């Protein structure tokens, strides 16, 4: 018999109750148990950044975080970035304006990382942006547009 644990997760300003196996990752809880599929499963080994979400405002790789570790903390996914009235977050708007995506698979993780690094005050120069975003890979090579979008959003937020 498979053992499960009960979790109460606060995600995107809503509370979710679910029963999962103790080893279920936050990524799988989001995608498979809660239907929040904006967070992408890339390498599933913590190397590509596609699964980046915020836990209490800090970026984490959801594929390396157990769902149980997020209990009692605020989780924000790409679905939770826009305002309640549907206005895009400044980083989302900048990604659109700068055409900072091609296939779009990495975009949610890129945006979540960008929001966090801007909040950390680490998006002052293009070199700082590149360094801080190094954990998010883009197979299409849209890096120059991504840096431009992060720079634009950072200037808007300051």
TrEMBL record:
Arranged from A to Z, the UniProt key words for this protein are: 2Fe-2S, Iron, Iron-sulfur, Metal-binding, Oxidoreductase, Plasmid
What PROSITE patterns does this protein map onto?
2FE2S_FER_1 (PS00197), 2FE2S_FER_2 (PS51085)
Q: Which residues form the 2Fe-2S ferredoxin-type domain?
A: 5-81
- GO MF terms, alphabetically ordered: 2 iron, 2 sulfur cluster binding; metal ion binding; oxidoreductase activity, acting on the aldehyde or oxo group of donors
Q: Which is one Pfam family of this protein? A: Fer2_2
- Gene3D superfamilies registered for this protein in UniProt: 3.10.20.30, [2Fe-2S]-binding domain (1.10.150.120)
So which domain of life are we looking at?
A: Bacteria
Name of the protein this chain belongs to: (2Fe-2S)-binding domain-containing protein
Q: Which organism is it from?
A: Rhizobium grahamii CCGE 502
């Amino acid at each position: 018999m498979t053992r499960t644990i009960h979790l109460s997760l606060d995600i995107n300003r809503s509370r979710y109750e679910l029963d999962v196996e103790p080893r279920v990752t936050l990524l799988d809880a989001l995608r498979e148990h809660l239907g929040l599929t904006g967070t992408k499963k890339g390498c599933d080994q913590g190397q590509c950044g596609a699964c980046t979400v915020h836990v209490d405002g800090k970026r984490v790789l959801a594929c390396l975080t157990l769902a149980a570790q997020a209990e009692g903390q605020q989780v924000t996914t790409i679905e939770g970035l826009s305002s309640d009235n549907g206005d895009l977050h400044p980083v989302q708007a900048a990604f659109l304006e700068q055409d900072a995506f091609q296939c779009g698979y990495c975009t949610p993780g890129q945006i979540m990382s960008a929001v966090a690094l801007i909040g950390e005050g680490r998006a002052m120069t293009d070199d700082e942006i590149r360094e801080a975003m190094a954990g998010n890979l883009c197979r299409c090579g849209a890096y120059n547009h991504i840096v431009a979008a992060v720079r634009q959003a950072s200037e808007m937020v300051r």
